Fold these 4 entries.
Entry 1:
Amino acid sequence: MAQRDVVFPAGRQALYERNRYSPAVRSNGLLFVSGQVGSREDGSPEPGLEAQVRRAFENLNAVLAAAGCSFDDVVDVTVFIVDPAERFERIWAVVPAYWGQAPYPNITCVGVTWLYGFDFEIKVIAKLPEGAPA
């Protein structure tokens, strides 16, 4: 098996090592980013739904930046929401600050019952910029 080309954002490698997963992997010109939640540096949830969503996007953007990408390079988004009937509108009020301009990436929203103490998770696939390590 080939060695995975893993991307780590600054200051969070210990968290990923403790939980035994890679924040992102480069492969064939794409960046596959693991689900990002609204966790603080120590891994604990950011209190408050809207603050947790903002922190999830900030964590996502840190992973993207570590690979030389931004949200503008994102082509596929999957979000997981605990109790989406209750929380979707509040979450979606925060999203435009991070989403960028049209054309937007595609998205799949999934309602779940549990996210390890979090209410929102976002995972993406991004196209690596030309000249970036593939």
Entry 2:
Amino acid sequence: MTSIQANGYPIYFNEKGYEFLNLHLKENKYSNLFIIVDSRTNELCLPQFLGYLETELIIEIIEFDAGEANKNIETCIQIWKVLTELGADRKTLIINLGGGVVTDLGGFVASTFKRGVDFINVPTTLLAMVDASVGGKNGVDLGNLKNQIGVINVPKMVLIDTNYLETLPKNEMRSGLAEMLKHGLIYDKNEWEKFLDLKGLDFADFDGFIYRSVSIKNEIVIQDPTEKNIRKALNFGHTLGHAVESYFLEHENKTTLLHGEAIAAGMILESFISKGKNLITTAEYLQIKSTIKSIFEDIQFEENDLKPIIELLIHDKKNEYGSIQFALLDGIGKIKINQEVDNQLIEKAFEDYKS
């Protein structure tokens, strides 16, 4: 696969990417190299990654516990302290090897340490490959509120090696698939239609699906790097999806959801809202609902869950002047941003989701 030129950095794929990574290490006079991993990628991905590296730099590994619960400022403080203790300076390079939690948090750590050091993202999950590691968003959660603290700052490169997907359990592969479905729904109807019959899908060309999904996100981000306009389209399914994810993360009696599981539910809910505002037809909505539900298990919502989930919407980052802003479908393959939605329609979306 040929590389993709993003907004200020290249995205390389598979073994060819390591050639460019090693060339980058050779051409830039870094003082040292730190690789940030979580406990999962340290075990499953780091040995393979180190086998490709060609450098005489001193390499230090920084590991933190895997999981969204650790994507917070406390983890960043611990990593900043380790970087300081081990002599990191302005000429340090940080490589983030892991899923979305690692690339989001590691990118934030690098962007803020000594006012910013170079970093490279090497995503190891499907979700990180098609979404989290691309686009320059870096950050952490504030309590149970998703991605409230962060910066937009691009890496020196992104290296996507799909061999790392062999380390993933099925539920994490599904989680990444949610973002791929989203890219089709908001931007490319033909891409969406490829996923209508999963049994007939040729997974031998899954690299091609990943490549197209990355291309779609990149094409949108290039138009609007700082999310003032069209980049908000990428938040389809995320306004309610993030609220659901945050609510389930906060409550001990709820099973923590993977990001893609929450976003899948969010896409169904926001598709219903799109139908309620006459932006898509009933047939389009039912196609979306049935397709997503054929892949993802239903999330069980109790009656007393809805009010606190809706209250969490006020913290969504797209909101302006206290008004909740949705990105809604305008037919499959198109989007309308900055859409206000009343609570009654949101409640109806949850009722229909449960039916």
Entry 3:
Amino acid sequence: MIANTFLQDIDEVFNLYKTASDFKKTVSGVQWPDFDRNMIETEIKENRHWKIMVDGHIACVWSITFDDLPVWGDRNTDSAIYIHRIATNPNFRGQKFVEQIAGWAKQFAAENNKRYVRMDTTAGNPRLTGYYVQCGFSHLGSKKMGNAEGLPSHYHKATMELFQLEA
């Protein structure tokens, strides 16, 4: 079941981020930073943070935004939603959550008059890139980031892989 994340879920959300970050480091050598709690609380309060529930447990989380200028540049003017920070509980890996998120996001984007669903990930994990394409996203290529002001630190001077799905 897909639902909005609640403030009372925030400790579990941060546990999932930590677990996902540790896993990400073993796969690609890149680790997520500690995310700002106020940023996550704001996403939750604005109904932009989501979860997949399985048997009463949070199995996966992600957030969305309607603007991502530092990453998407000129393309940011397109009508799109942007998915960020997909993190899966390791006890629920292999359940094709990105496919579920892609289907949900297409519908959510259409209901909000958006043409595209977009996301990015740090370069260096070809298996993940292939999985995102398998889930229906087009791989639009790589983008070398600059200082990435206003974004979490893992964007700073990173190379990002960009993905898009038509809603």
Entry 4:
Amino acid sequence: MDLSRPLMTVTPTVDGDVLAVLASHDGIFTSGQLHRLLARHSEEGIRKVLRRLTKQGVVESDRVGNAFAYRLNRDHLAAEYIIGLARIQKTLLERIEDRLESWQVPPVYAAVFGSVARGEMTQDSDLDLLLIRPDDADGDRWTAQVDEMAIEVTRWTGNDTRPLEFTEAELAGRAYDEAVLRDVARNGLTVAGSRAWLADHLALVSGGDG
């Protein structure tokens, strides 16, 4: 799945990119404004799409000075499905949160990071998931949960899911890639626990370098 272009799941055309922008904002856009956001497409190509979608009724147009401004017709029968596709990343994070909350051994902290967090995930990207395991967790139960989640998330997205796991003790002992964790603390999308917990922990560890 290409989360940076969510409607690619159903259409690889300019239409999907235009609809994704309109569905993600309540405001109005001229073709020029859309072109600045969707620079991979020509402005003329965007205009043609807008005219076609306006004829379908899914997009509304209003004259603003010498130009036309466009917005999604949220009363259209197709609008709820378009909006659902446009917010697919949010839906993914909510599903992951729900699964983690149901775990018998919940993580101390978890976050999605990498290309998803950077807004660069494509159909060929891995989905990176950081999981911090409680020190007293049952190892077999924990491993089973992680394996099940990796399979589920891959089924949801089509992307290979790559869990990155540490125990609390491993963090305290600095047996980890500090650069990765600091990137998660800055840019990761938290799905369990508190980002402040990770940030505070990393600050404490760094402070102990002496």
